[in-house]
DNA sequence: GTCTATATGGCGATAGAC
DNA sequence: GTCTATCGCCATATAGAC
């Protein structure tokens, strides 16, 4: 049980993670990954045989990071306000730490959407459970009656989109002031929660 | 003034538009564009000199399609409900006709965000005007007081995201039933409008 | 203007020494 | 396991005939 932190394999994984996350499969070069790992190209193939195989190994890991565990929040015996608030906070925190994830997923999603869906399911996230939870809230009269899928899509979109489209929105709305945009994104933990609650709650 | 519709240059532009839109710059091949245009690769270079130059010529055109003219709606003397409704309908109609545009923009946005912002401005869309319009509504007490940028980002995100993430959402929420998802997207001309109005209107 | 043929360069992948 | 050197392919780009 030697320390694996600085093993060659781990250095490759770390470097490939960084490069693939920023540039995607097509945009990445094996040479660049090798340079970043401080080794040569041949070793990449020695450990992972092909660029495709290396990407697949990294891909699963990136996707896993992209879906934080929300079961505890969504299925808990809490008022729906708290569930929404918890969801928004967890996702915005995750993306603040991993700002390249949303664009990466949207970029690579067409490569194998079925695989991504499988990873989501394996994270224990079951859309049907969330939908039926929302339907119960509607039946109980706490939230407006509507297609529960609308709520899910709107919630996810409101949280993810400003990160995925950050480069454009930053220019259009903040004249390229990056600090102001970061603050704006962070504020959204509160403002998005309010926005959604205003849209769906019956009070 | 001969008819230019079937000129070689136009055939190249049409073919390049289709291929670049679906696959992006990195994912597209000059050979594929030549095949689709019914000519050979050499002619592409004869007319546009390089792949990069050809892409830039097409890029501007794609971006222009992505921002339909909304000045008439946003700046008109209409109640804010009608402005929101008009915006949502125009954008969803545009994306239903050009489903590859959202993913294309998010994919290519990092290549030259400044250029995209310039095209948006050249379309006559002035974010500052929209922001001040929203602020007037807040001062008049028709909509809730909040950062008007939140409204703009939320509006754009709610409209675009379900198209950009269609492959994933289609699996997760509709078990890959594409027809159901198309109907869902079309219904959103109404449901997104309602959702936003509930979120921002004071009544 | 349009074609065929070919040059040029880059990148993934492999061979083989150490 | 790690390296250098090189192969082989594919994609962009050019040369030159027609």
Q: Could you outline the blueprint of secondary structure elements for this entry?
A:
Two copies of one chain form a homodimer.
Chain A: H1 8-27, H2 30-37, H3 41-48, H4 51-66, H5 71-74, H6 80-97, H7 101-108, H8 113-122, H9 127-140, H10 148-164, H11 166-174, H12 178-200
Helix pairs in contact in A: 1-2, 1-4, 1-7, 6-10, 6-12, 7-10, 9-10, 10-12
The first copy, chain A, binds a DNA duplex (18 and 18 nucleotides) through residues 8, 29-31, 39-47, 49-51.
Determine the N-to-C terminus distance of chain A.
Answer: 59 Å
- Average pLDDT for all residues of chain A: 93
Count of DSSP-assigned helices of chain A: 12
Biggest interface in this structure? A-B, 50 and 50 residues
Fraction in helix of chain A: over 70%
Low-confidence stretches of chain A: none
* Main pleated sheet of chain A: none
Q: State the order of secondary-structure elements of chain A, H for helix, E for strand.
A: HHHHHHHHHHHH
Give the total of beta strands of chain A. 0
Rg result of chain A:
20 Å
In terms of structural class, how would the helical and strand content of chain A be classed? mainly alpha
Oligomer type: homodimer
Report the sheet-strand fraction of chain A: under 5%
Overall, the morphology of chain A is globular
Could you explain how this protein is built, in words?
2 copies of one chain form a homodimer. The first copy, chain A, is mostly helical and 203 residues long. Chain A contains 12 helices and no strands. At the A-B interface, α1, α7, α8, α10 and α11 of A face α1, α7, α8, α10 and α11 of B. The structure holds a DNA duplex (18 and 18 nucleotides).
